[in-house]
Request: fold
Amino acid sequence: MPTHVGVGFSQHIDPITAALEAATQAKTQARHEADLAIVFSTIHYSPSEFLPRIQQVLYGAKIIGCSTAGVITSQQIGMRGIAVLAIKSADTKFATAYVDNVQSQDMRQVGMTLARQTVSDFGQLHRKAFIYFVDGLLSDNAAIVKGMQEVFGNVFPIIGAGSSDDFHFQQTFQFCDEKIMTNAVTGFLIGGKLNIGLGTRHGWRPLGKPRTIDKSSGNIIQKIDGKAAATIYDEYFGKEATNLRSTKLGQMAILYPLGIFLEGEREYLLRNAINIQSDGSIVCQGEVPQGSEVHIMLSNKEHCIQSAADAALEAQRNLAGKRPQCVIILESLARLKLLGRAAKSEIETVKEIFGESTPLIGMYSYGEICPSQTLKEKSIIHLQNESVIILAIG
Amino acid sequence: MDLFYYINPQTLFTIIGGLLLLISGLMTFFLIDKNLECKKLQSDLNKLVRSFHEIDEQAKLIVKTDLELNKAQEELDKRLNGLEALQKTSRLISTTLDEIEIFTRIDKSLMMDLGFEKNLILVYDSAHKFKCRVDLGFSKEEIEHILISLQNDEELQSALKAGNIFSSATQATLKNDKIIKIFRVAHFVLTPILCKNGMLGVLCVGNRSDASAVTAGDEELISILANQIGQSLENAQLFEQVYRSSQILESKVQDRTKQLASALEEVQKISKTKSEFISAVSHELRTPLTSIKGYASILMTGKLGEIPESVHERLDKINKHSDNLVKMINDLLDISRIESGRAEMRFEKHKLAALIENVHDILTPQLREKNIHWTIQIDAGIDEIPMDRNQIERVFINLVGNAIKFTPPEGTITVTARIDEKMVQVEVTDTGIGISSEDLPKLFDEFYRVENDINQYVKGTGLGLSLVKKIIEAHQGKIWATSEPNKGTTFHFTLPLEKNIPDQTLPEGS
Reply:
């Protein structure tokens, strides 16, 4: 039996109507059956209102998803709306899981718990990838991956995205079946006779002289070039640096992340400052190696779109000749900020590579987790910022 | 060893000294060279360090410029998105003239697309109290609080009525603080919705987060939207007024039509009763009149014995008056027959010229008596026209007879006939005493007689023209008169060229 995939989208003001419209479209296109539904919604819609309706329409399907700054489908980028991808395949198996209240727990342990839940549910089928959504407002959620790797092994593809809101960094949601959570992680294991094609890039370039991270611990950078870490922002942004995060300029700062040079990697490892501590330490989402070389990073629309094209081509290559059944895009909301109205061009470029009719769904995230594109054979899973992850399922 | 044996020690020392000197010289030269190379390297390194710093300074400049560009780009994108939403809203609301529909069309989603998480449109109701028509992002309690606070704040209302727009993008004022308190939103634009006759309501948009502070651009966008809403509301209200007026007018017209119809019905009833009465009375009168006339005639023949001259004279008067009375009764009967539709009109095609000539023949004695000139002008195109010959002959006899009556000797009577579209228009013109403008409209009323010198002496029933009018109308024609006192009168009437009425074939009632 072939795989059937459908994508639905609605911008209706009423959450219930929007959910019914999006879910029904997806279900109809997927020939009225679904094993798994991926749901992305902007924060204009209350999940407690719309999620039960999606469950009602896609009865029997496992549901996974999260809130986002904008939903992506082949037709549009909705800064307001609900998108649903429904997939039905006899050759594919999905197992979903979630862990709630993760902030109070050890992140590594959270990762292990999440992975084990899906594995126990999965049986003997060949596992292909694990995809998860974590509250993007959690600092240092990258450690979750380490826990998962203890279950899945170091070479197993794990892809993740931080759920987001509308650039206000206040509250995000994660969904798993009927559960609606904040401060949680949800994910699904996918396996069977399918191929997974993965590609990731960010397209940001280093600028200015290299500096050295003299002191860091975990996801906090204390000193750069002998000075308090946040001094780097003072130097580059001048007096505007004091407004970091609190104003429009604060939102703008995500366009200029710190770039850490990693020997052997194709691109720099990017880190957004999610908080500045009173001693001038910078808090990032993922860990920062002490002693590494750091730059301020910059990109533009052209590089941004080109990097998405490169990621899409790489994902297509990794499909090893199989026709893509659907494409999932998880990309940083910084890219949406940078591209603005040109964000549609980025999606058009991806569509050109996979074909106009390939079902496509995507979201804008606070942090992306993906095996990095190394120049060597072995890739390491990193939490990135400003990147686009393209996952083609064939 | 042999060599050292043969060289004396002094020479040996000299050679060694020379060699040492040479080596030290070479060493010195080498060190100087290295030193120079070091200095060059140091200089290169310094240059590199300086370049590095310069590059970093350039990078800072690039970052700041890029930041400015991105800010400008974002503002531009926001403006474009706002304009798109505004254009969509404008198109939607300008295509309806229904006030409720306007607010239905200002859908919450449209307001959301304008880029504000909170929106409120308050409009004055008929009692001049604010009423919430569109709301987004405000709780019911918040809306209630805003309605009361704004209604009670006359100072703020006056400022809005004067066309002032308030926005957190401009410098903080006391009024701005007040607005923040009323609307409980840190970043806002509050603008009046104005029309020609004053303020219709207010529009407020806002965002809570500092990261979404409103800009001067937002202020402009919202004021354009408020103007658009104002215009649409004004149009809707004007349309409503016009529509209501037309409804009232239509209802009045309907009432009046009903009244007129009922009055007409009443008049028709009365008219019918009158005709029936006249018809009945005339019949009843005609029989004894015939007897009176018969007995008078018998007496006048002298068969019942000689009658003195004075009696003969009286009997002659009885006979004449009886004739007048018979004529009057016959005219009344004809009028009532035509009115009630009982008179049979026999439409046949007849030559108009021949008919007029015949009338001329009949009236020639009277014309000669007063030596009146008779002229006739009939368009060549007029030949046979459908008519009841006897009735139309009566029309001509009446009109020409009247003309003879009121035209002094040596006068002229002209009869003309011409084609006017699908009708023949006939005119009978005299050079008589004329009719005053007051009398003209009543000329065709039954028993109406114009007061003039001639009428005082010439007897008439006052039914002739009334009968003429009924005959012409029975032919689907019209009749009217024009006159100039002391110059003459023209009677105009029309007859259709083609017969377009069915024969009135009802048999005569009597």
About this structure: DSSP finds 13 helices and twelve strands in chain B. The interface with chain A takes residues 52-53, 55-56, 58-60, 62-64, 66-67, 70-71, 73-74, 77, 80-81, 107-109, 112-113, 209-213 of chain B (CB under 8 Å). The longest strand of chain B covers residues 198-207.
